[in-house]
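Quick one - first record:
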Amino acid sequence: MIKIAEFLGPTPSPLWRLAKQAGIDWAVGGLPFNDPHNGADAPWDYEPLRRMKQGYESGGFQLAVIEARPPLNRAKRGLPGRDEEIATVCTLIENMGRLGIPVWCYEWMTDFNWLRTDTARPSRGGSVVTSFDYALVKNSPPTELGPISEDDLWRNLDYFLRRVLPVAEQWNVKLAMHPDDPPLSPIRGVGRIMRSVENFQRLLDLVPSPANGLTLCQGNFTLMTSDLPEVIRHFGRQGKIFFVHFRDVRGTPEKFEETWHDAGQTDMLACMQAYRDIGFDGVLRPDHVPTVEGDSNENAGYSSFGRLYAIGYIRGLQQAVYGR
């Protein structure tokens, strides 16, 4: 049975209460905020992570995934200082293992993370969503660090995995690679390698390990394939789906918009059936929801009220497919 979770900041908030009221028992967290009253520990050190985990538990949640990264751009680019960044990741993974936090969601997007060209595109009933149009950025100048090729990114990823995966195996933590968002390459001279089903299989084959897997972010993967349920089965048969972002879009990698969970291009019921068929029993969370009446678009894609709709929709699919 899937575990429906929600992304919750480490400090109790009204969203925590809304999530509990919606029946959520599992939390996906970031890294702890620095607390000057508790020494000079870094966010990936044991004590800050322990306090964060204990805080979620006090709120009635089990912390299932950490979806935040220490600085990694030197590692991605193969620059001096990458070994120190990799050592920091190893510290995070070891401490996650000590605390029983089983999944780390990471990505290999260099210089910038997920990218949108509009964060207030009109959608159903006056709600707003995020969207992307490559035509608006195709002539943008290269990033400050300059171009980097896909071949270099693959070499640097291989270097990273060969140092990190043995630590993950030792501490029983799974590494769940998130797709590039959008799954398009290059952007501003920067190659993007986690952008196709074939490249995700290459990731799994690059350094075979029980700890090497993926975050099945449906909004990205549905832009890579015309048959998302079959892609779920493809990776699920290998036991490589460690975490799911359950969301949808409409369009192509070059031009798309986020959608309400019931209004995109994907057969969401068929996706839920695919998770059941592969025996997926991990964590699934809604992602990138519309901003609706009465809520703020300050953090576009993460409207509290929009999340409630998504949780209810996913819960309905879960009950239809799995039964109560």
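second record:
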Amino acid sequence: MEKIGLLKSMKQSLHAESEEVRKLMNQLIDANSFVELQSYSYSHNDFYGESAYGEGVITGFATINDNPVYVAAINSKVLSGGLGLSNCKKIVNLMDKALMANMPVVYLISSQGILAGEGVDALEGVAMLLSKCQQLSQSVPQFAVCYGKVLGSATLLAAQCDYTYYLKGACVAFNSPLVIAAKSEVNFNETAIGGDSNGNGLCTFSVETMSDVKESMTALFDILPEFGGVYEETDDDPNRASANLNEKVCAKCLISAVFDNGKFIELGKTYTKEVLTGVGRVGGYSVAAIIFNGENGVELTKNNVEKVKDFLYFATDNNLPVLTFVNTLGLKQDVETNSSTVLKSLSNLLCALDYSRSVPRINVIYGKAIGLGYTLFGSKAYGADYSFAFCNAEVGAVNSEVGAQMEYASAGGDKEALKEKFASVELDPFKGAKGGFIDDVIEPQYVRQYIIAALQMLI
């Protein structure tokens, strides 16, 4: 009886210290599905003078809508969720098990960074953790759910994950927002520095509640080939036409016209909004899509090039066919872009395009494919299997304004009329089709039919 009493006392202490994070975790996983690992692993931190119950981390396996996952929840109530050698080892142990079982890992993160009082021990622990995270990145999906302040080295764990969720009120920043504000002598708030729209490109999904996280993860599992299968029967007519596309085309219109029942999961919605990236099903087939969303064509910058590059690696690693909806110009002509590391980013994008040769790729030129925009996203030279253009698209080396000045200005006449003439003659997609560079020129309303036919051939 003495042992039983001791067990109950230990369990009560552990659960009292982790009540809040367990409640959060239970909102994500299926009821009664959690099996905890290393429950009674805890030590006394001599520097801080506190017992780190469970090492400040809860680890185990569970299911999310019947999908098996491993879970590591960092408890911000224990040493501020600080990362030290012991709790990093505990997370790494879980990651090893996930790798062996080929199961996804979900990290719930709220941490002030490393336990500085541990010195080099803490630094070694974080290095072990980040190194293992990188090993997992090529093998199993990793999800980070940032539910509070995520600072210092903890941000690098979130950054290495395939999907990073920002729960309402989350702040993710390597340096403390208070320190940044003080050094900048500006009254920044935490959201401006570490919120979902601060421009660091880390946030995959911005959500209100853990229920939203569960719904999102379930939808992703349904689409990713490894979990939901490459193909799933759909009740959406594969021959469905969208007459509205003959009048006007936009990203929203394309999503509605192309994807099964208009369902599209956008990734990284809060940044670089002129380029949409996401996943869905078309004719029952799982696909990844890049949609350049700009009325007059998207100019290339360091940020949107990096977003496309990262997404190509993601799609290839998940064995997803890539649809690229092209409405793209060349490099943005301003000082900021040309003074940035955009050329290095473009070089990295070329590597990603080459890497993605292993998955089917379909280019759809629906707007403009001008200059470098065509070279990167319209041409088949970098491994695209099929390329077609809308009949009212514009394809060429220069835009209509520059082209009109080069070709027709000497003849005189109305500037707008010359631009229109150049667009209709020199930017006609049929010129590319005559050279064999574009496989087909189509009526916009039938785009879904053409894509499904290509997927049926390529998959």
